[in-house]
């Protein structure tokens, strides 16, 4: 690629990807509301509020790839979700539609779009959504925007329902949802390499033994996660008790989010 | 019911329902941004902007049933959709959650939530969404809100993907999508009568021969549409040519919406 | 048919069928543990305890059709269920296997074999069983016996998961489960007329608007229920309130059975 | 339509359709290898051997609709099937591809394309084929030709797996497979009226109670068969015994064809 | 666990598990009708006839895990099956229900619950049962008991349809059905470790290349069989011919059981 | 086996298999229209035109296994396809039916039988066919012949929809479709070893990361491809650009065949 835009580049996941994707494009354009530090040789820094439509238009212009990690990444009051994840998503796709180069987009969706499914269910890309909060609803919205811009304008998006993308799983539930940074990088490579992407839904998890998710619908991507959470099981077992059988962390795929109420302002 | 709220009571569908649902509740509370005329004996008029959270809270308070027809009902610029259908939907469900009486809700969703499916496909409640514009995206969002408030707080909603609810079908596509006012009334009765509703997706169409939609997942409601668009076929054939085979009105379930672009402000 | 055996002929359903099936066979052989009254011209009375293997052997001998209504028909202690529905079923099929004429059998199974499915689910013959008590478990057992004797010995059985076979539905749940006596007779006729029966699972309900059950797998039988419970809805609405939304009668297909415990001796 | 071509116009079904479809086109072009009699005012007679590629090219030229009833309509030796149904089908579609007007085509496929499915199975358009002889194989071939010319050249075909299209069903099996002439006419009308046909598989049977076939995939056509074989059941029961349970006419959907061998020359 | 009960501890599988599960509980309580030998330090020996309800009640009391291997493990006359597998199963679950500690249970079900499915079919947990004898019927019964006690009382059971659990596969059919002792131990560990088990159906087989069974529904358990029967193929090929293509051992999943009759007393 | 016939033994794939299958039969009978070179000790050379029915009868006589690689293997004019793939297939199966030994057959079908499915779809053996040319249609025909001869005469065939069987994948599309010669040999071994084959559809591809095909329906064969195209990805990336997203090689599973027209004579 010529220019890859990473939004949310100052978030945890954004900082990881900033250093791991340098082989994918000549220039990496980085954006965030927060501090982006020093630009490296191949980097462009473009701080931007995703709720600012005109700024987003400039941000997107000229990029042939976008890794959209930006926006609100956990539950929050409605106004926060609305600006960051609804306005932000709309602005990004309007920018993409009007850009002189049509970008291919990876949208960081979330397991919280399907969080109220039980852990004894097995989901694939055709499963109905069951969001577990306003954050999850905003991800269903984002996937709908991606679907519509694909059907109407041909913009291709990979919506990745990310499980838990950390260096290590941090509790028993994450033994099912964990995705290693390396596996995420492998997925990003595949999305930008395949000649025809379409607009798939992808579950973002490593090859965990205790997975609930089935990526059979996107076999054509050729993404093969290489890591597994099993190597961390003994460590987690040693550090904490598993949740009780009727704990939301043991019942629902979305875990703790399912037990929370709505965030008042 | 004690008190049934009808939002959007000044719209076409709202005005029809205002006169046809009087047997369902002791009091009908009517709301709209526009003029609501004179209150009848059993009516309460409460003009309200759905984007006004506090007003909506008062509007919902004390209602045990809500027929939510309000909001933007065709494609429009983002800001309009956002206020009417995103803020409005959130405010309505927050109102329901905080109300002293938990209402059962009928949400007027739309075929435009699945509009980019082809007319040669047959859909049911488990089919993936494919919205055909910002309006359609807002309906996917609305169904997600309903799903989440059901899973999290137990509020029951019937999301009705309304086809074309007019006195008569007006073109060839509507021979597939038409729902008579009488059949809609029958559906509303069933939704409020069954002891356990859950949170179903319902396709709102009469018993049309040329239907694309299969309500098998909601057989338990006992709704049997009695009307059929076939009686109007000859009339429509006489009035106009059918669309060409590659016309969006013949290709996609969402018809003309699928051929339109995004409304700029 | 030459000789049709009706077991449980002194039960409510047995007494109805005794008078309605006279056109199906030259001789109707009637059996029950209880009093069978006076034999009509075309009738043979053979009182019999289904737990008595030798007696059952004689009972079955020479019959080319069996309507097996006998056994325990509601929840009961284990010993009662075991004798009537486990021993009884085994004895009946051993009798059929050893008989000089291989009979075709209708087994009165029950909705309680799938009673813990929720009323918002739609079942067909492939749905997994979820029995709602020892009685329901005995019906799963009976269907398994029928399946095995079909695969191993070619004996054909129609297992009918009877809903509620009364003159009229008696409460709101039965608006979904009711089967008229006339529709049951129509079904019995079809089972004995089709040249090849196989070993189907059939949901025994009239053409009720509010059905939860789908008989698509047995379309080849040509059974078309003619009655519907809707005609009784107003009467039931007038006589009683519908169950509350969280009442077992509104939640589970098996209704009240799902709320009961195990019958101790 | 301007000009509708009927091939096989001298066959039983062809002669029926010749008189029943006059409202569908200004000119009906009739073709057969056999005698076509006198031309009526609106008719063009063009005798033609379907195995003659050049003649077929002329036959198809200028037709906007084709009802392809021609070819070999029962089992026959390979050379007969090959000429009439393989060469004939190829020639017809090559003709259609090269014609100055692209026709919409109805292909008279057959239940013998799926004849080895058992009568206790229920099929829809997605079921795998199981042809019951060379004739059935030729129909699978024909559907494949239709599919390929649709995907490659956009020619639309309705492949109708005709059951038994006679004035009355003639035996017990036909109570499941019968299609009245009137229902076939209704289907032909729908195929030529809908703006977008695609390339569907349709089971050609009336609304028979004992059907094995499910047309759910083509609900969008709006075809509602009005007749049912049930009215003839008593008559057939009076005229003949039903086939024994292990007779091919009672076991397989294709009936007697399934018991036959291969026709040697 | 505090106390794990193993029933059938003197059977082949029971003796294996007695020595391999010592890491799972502080105390292993062992039961059988036969001789249990000397108790090891961490063992409790409680000989018991499963048909003796009161004895079973005492046996179960205080156990937080049960591995139910007891009962009749091959085809037998009805009275034997009934006592060991029907009475025994009922008594065990009544014991569990009344125990001061609710145990989690592993029920040794069997491939003979689905034995009449052909070897060319692929099954998962939703496939219909097709028992291949009285033994297989008793396993369908057992799974029904487990399902009912889960829905009614919340007792969690893993019903494991064990294929062939021997040190090595012993014939060609077992190349498909074999489960190594090590893989069974791994499964038992997973069942007792996951916080929420539910009431799943699990196919008990190693990662055999020629498997007929798909455990996709229980991916959430995180059970990954590590062994494969392929390593024994050459040995079996050398020792015996494969069964002929129409031998029951080559046709049905249940193998030889499918060719046997009913055991008379 | 006693005698294995390989047709098309002078083709690319035939020459490979000639040397790799010597362990499978005492005698390898080789056939082709072209030059077959020198016979090795265990070989019989029988040049033959598959369109010559009598010659094919002699060719097949006495073989207990057939690897049918013969016929036209790429798109060609109708007459060529008809002789080689329609007549040839019919002749082969008539030969098999009349042979004194009933052979088991491997039919080299092709991915072009399903070529018009998009690369974003995932197929299994139950997916509908979508041939991408006359060659693809002839493979659908061949699978239908195999199905019919199995249902009617019990002849067992493995129809292998071969992807791309070359020493190495030669372009990006083949990273999805490639099958190594070694994996094909493994498949052939399994087909001839299993006691009961039936008449399965098998996708012939190695364990490629980017596969579109799911062989779940034939797990019972125990075929485990060992190779993967991923090892060649870097090489192909270095040698050529991937096809553009709207290139037929990136859109359809059949690749370039989907962009071609019909071959005129």
Automatic annotation (TrEMBL), chains A, B, C, D, E, F:
InterPro entries: Epimerase_deHydtase, NAD(P)-bd_dom_sf. It comes from the Bacteria. Pfam families: Epimerase (PF01370). The keyword Cell division does not apply. Residues 5-169 form the NAD-dependent epimerase/dehydratase domain. Keywords: Carbohydrate metabolism, NADP. This is NAD-dependent epimerase/dehydratase family protein.
């Amino acid at each position: 690629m010529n220019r890859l835009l990473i939004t949310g580049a100052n978030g945890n996941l954004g900082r990881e990807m900033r250093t791991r994707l340098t082989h994918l494009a000549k220039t990496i354009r980085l954006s965030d509301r927060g501090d982006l530090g020093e630009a490296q040789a191949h980097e462009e820094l473009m701080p931007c509020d995703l709720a600012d439509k005109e700024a987003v238009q400039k941000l997107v212009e000229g990029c042939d790839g976008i890794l959209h990690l930006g926006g609100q990444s956990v539950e929050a009051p409605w106004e926060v979700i609305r600006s960051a994840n609804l306005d932000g998503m709309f602005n990004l796709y309007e920018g993409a539609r009007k850009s002189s180069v049509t970008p291919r987009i990876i949208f960081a969706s979330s397991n919280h779009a399907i969080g109220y499914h039980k852990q004894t269910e097995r989901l694939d890309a055709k499963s109905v959504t069951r969001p577990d909060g306003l954050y999850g609803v905003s991800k269903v919205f984002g996937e709908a925007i991606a679907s519509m811009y694909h059907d109407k304008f041909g913009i291709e998006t990979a919506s990745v329902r990310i499980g838990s993308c950390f260096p290590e799983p941090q509790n028993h539930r994450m033994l099912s949802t964990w995705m290693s940074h390396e596996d995420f990088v492998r997925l990003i490579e595949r999305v930008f390499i395949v000649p025809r992407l379409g607009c798939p839904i992808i579950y973002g998890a490593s090859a965990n033994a205790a997975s609930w998710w089935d990526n059979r619908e996107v076999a054509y991507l050729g993404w093969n996660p290489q890591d597994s959470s099993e190597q961390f099981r003994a460590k987690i077992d040693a550090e904490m008790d598993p949740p009780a059988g009727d704990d939301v962390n043991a019942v629902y795929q979305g875990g703790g989010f399912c037990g929370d109420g709505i965030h008042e302002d």
